[in-house]
Please model this.
Amino acid sequence: MVEQIELKLIGETRSQPQLYPEFHERLIAPRLRQIINLIERAQAHVELRQDLNPLLVLDLIAGAGWYGILFTRYISPAPSDLPEQIVDNTVLRGNQKLEGKQ
Model:
């Protein structure tokens, strides 16, 4: 249900572009700020590499989630731990040091 509402809202912002600034400022921007703050906090506590771009990390997580919502769920239902799998397989693996590199 929530997915349907989100997709409808996104569609409306495409067909009625004057809605997008309000949609972005009230719904998207606050959540982006929260997530970026979490990433930056994890970097400050050395839980994530400090050279990772917080926006790129966010794009990797959100992009994978949206792709699943829009496309792959029709092939196979999403596992209940999809968000954790996305983070584990994108951000946290990228957090590991490569052998021989510091």
User: Anything to note?
Assistant: The two ends are 46 Å apart (CA to CA).
